[in-house]
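Field reference: sequence -> structure
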Amino acid sequence: MAMNLVTDVYRLVEGFPKTEMFGLASQLRRAVVAVPSNIAEGQGRDSTREFIHHLSIAYGSLMEAETQIQIAVNLTYISQTEADQLIENAAEVGRLMNGLSRSLRQSLSDNRRLTTDN
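Structure field:
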């Protein structure tokens, strides 16, 4: 879903004014690309703690992208309807990341209990 969000944002910013290609459009692209990139990097790390940390970074980038989407609406680069769809997709990505993070934290907690009980 995070990859789909990247694709949607890339397509949408093509309609931004040419003067914004190195401003808001670039910033928004970087923020949204950071989401699946950090998820992938965290998953490839050696520890669950590092994965959780990278999920947190990804979530921060997702919030940054949502803010930039709203700025694009305020500047009338995109419609509120387009923004609402992107923000709903971003919210779903956020829910999935939060669920994964919660599950990983629970797994860490369970493993700690197992090692202290033995």
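Note: The mean pLDDT is 93.
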